Amino acid sequence: MQNIDISKAATAWPPLAGTVFVPHTEEEYNQIVALLDQLIDEVGEDESHPLASLMEILGVLIENYESEHVPELISD
């Protein structure tokens, strides 16, 4: 397991904190979805791209929001 240098993380996080966050409102959710769309355009399916893991994280955040706030469609 990697050791995380907390001081480096503390320096790197503030510029990202306004962009990468857990969405609690529909507006925040839409911001995260828009960011993911931009990343998909940039990264595509390149799993070795430096931003590929960020894409995955955003996907999980979106999925969690949707499971809590978007009702499931009921099929006949």
Can you describe this structure in just a few lines?
This protein has 76 residues and is an all-alpha fold.
Written account of the structure:
By secondary structure, the chain is mainly α. The protein has a domain of 52 residues. The chain has 4 helices and no strands.
Number of strands: 0
Helix/strand order, N-terminal first: HHHH
The low-pLDDT segments are: none
Proportion of residues in β-strands: under 5%
Give the integer mean of the pLDDT values. 92
Percent helix, as a range, is 55-70%
- Radius of gyration equals 15 Å
Count of discrete alpha- or pi-helical segments spanning 4 or more residues: 4
Shape: globular
Structural class: mainly alpha
Biggest sheet, in brief?
none
User: What is the terminal-to-terminal distance?
Assistant: 48 Å
Could you give the topology of this structure?
Elements: H1 6-12, H2 14-17, H3 26-43, H4 52-69
Helix pairs in contact: 3-4
Question: Main attributes?
Answer:
76 residues, mainly alpha, 62% helix, 0% strand, globular
